[in-house]
Amino acid sequence: LFGRDGPDGDHRTLQRKGLQNQDTFLTLLKVASRNYRTWVVAMLYGASFGIELTVLNYIHTYFHDVFDIRKLTAGYYASTFGLMNVFARAFGGLGSDYASRRYGMKGRLWVWFILLLGEGAFCIALGRSDHSLGATITFCVLFSCCVQAANGACYGVVPFISKRSLGVVSGFVGAGGSAGSIITQLAFFRP
Fold it and tell me: Gene3D superfamilies under this entry (predicted)?
């Protein structure tokens, strides 16, 4: 009501001045869906956010079953994975922005790549640390930090895919995360 609708100003003012995008939704949908970058970023976000949702769905059971601890205690330990969202996602976005100041888009992509690589390495370490509760919690926190930061770094790249259809691209990428979770859960936890 009292704020601006976007970084360029109020929608009605922009429309009156002829500065607002006049494309229809179908046109924007075509622009976004025909850009291969939209699909690549959606798949990579699916690898990151999809894994996050899958781990959040299962990690408490893992702690309970592997370490034979009470479900409430397992839930407390499992919450460390989700709590990293409080700061790590923002750090991924900040890292992306910082790298872009010096290296441009290549910097953003390298930050995202390194975080995805860390995500994979700590996921493997987490799976192999079932001998020690302390090591498992440590790797859970490190894995989660990389997962959340990679999610933030992803959305540091999204605005550069298509300025014209940014909202549609953002929607496709977000849906890619949910699809990644469905695929991951079907691949690893089929009944």
Answer: MFS general substrate transporter like domains
Q: Are 51 and 119 in contact (CB under 8 A)?
A: yes
Give the span between the Cα atoms of 41 and 19, in whole angstroms.
Answer: 28
Torsion of Cα atoms, 86 then 50 then 174 then 96, to 10°: 50
123-138 confidence digits (pLDDT tens) = 999 999 989 999 999 9
Residue type at 76? Answer: Y
> Is position 3 within any domain?
no
What lies within 8 Å, CB to CB, of 144 at 6+ separation is: 52, 55, 80, 81, 82, 84, 85, 88
Residue 174 belongs to domain spanning: 34-64+87-188
Residue 71 lies in a domain: no
Its sign, for the CA torsion 14, 20, 26, 28, is negative
> Residue 20 domain-assigned?
no
27-67 per-position pLDDT tens digit = 989 999 999 999 999 999 999 999 999 999 999 999 999 99
Inside any domain, residue 131 = yes
Whose CA is closest to 188, among 76, 43, 50? Answer: 50
This prediction has a pTM of 0.87
